Amino acid sequence: MLMEVIPSGGAHGAxxxxxxxxxxxxxxxxxxxxxxxxxxxxxxxxNQDIAEEDHIRFSxxxxxxxxxxxxxxxxxxxxxxxxxxxxxxxxxxPIGVSDAGKFWHTDLxxxxxxxxxSLLYSFEVPVSDDGTVLGDTLFSNTAAAYDGLPDDIKSRIxxxxxxxxxxxxYFKSGQGEQFKKSAExxxxxxxxxxxxxxxxxxxxxxxxxxxxxxxxxxxxxxxEQLLGFLVEWVKKPDFVYRHKWQAGDLLMWDxxxxxxxxxxxxxxxxxxxMQRITVRGTVPIPA
Length: 287
Fold this sequence. Notes:
alpha+beta; Double-stranded beta-helix; 17 strands; 22% helix
């Protein structure tokens, strides 16, 4: 079967058919996937049956893998993989990050080199008694969000920088306990507020509600007002693709021009179990 790219019809997102990620890919197929990735930002491969080694092999072709910043939620046999799950072990403790994606964010934007890509593979997806799939992941196209900003806002944010902090919104809302270990090991980081995509050159709005503490060099009140506007702006439906999960999905997204958020509209006994690999990016470039 030939590879086929089917756009979502929304602001971004596409499904790639005709690719089996349990098998090594030839160069032409891999380059076609990368081209689709840079065009659509969020890509899903449905009905995949892959082992951890397959997940790692495919991710490594994109770039160097970041080790799990959570430490205690790393896969027991593969440190490159982080477990995302609400399932509890026999001692009643989570086997993975249970509250992942509760606030809109870009993966690892609290580090000097945020992720280039994240690749999330689903084993179990929560489904209600009436068959409704729960736990959708929503993705904002933050390049389109920047393009759509009023000109006066663009002029106000031009050349500005931001301070990001790991799990900032979780601690601010009293929900940061599970991130305490990783937060203690990480320092605040400064990034440009508007960055340039390293491959496409598009301008991107790079603040997010989960991690951005402030817009630097602005009075506190002005920073809070402007930041509040921007983090809500990216959530506008015109910029958002909603992913409806299926078991066997391998979903990969470009972290530079996207933010994402998970709908936590489920709880045990409905189970969610996934594994994620992040591919290291580069230092964000001011636009």
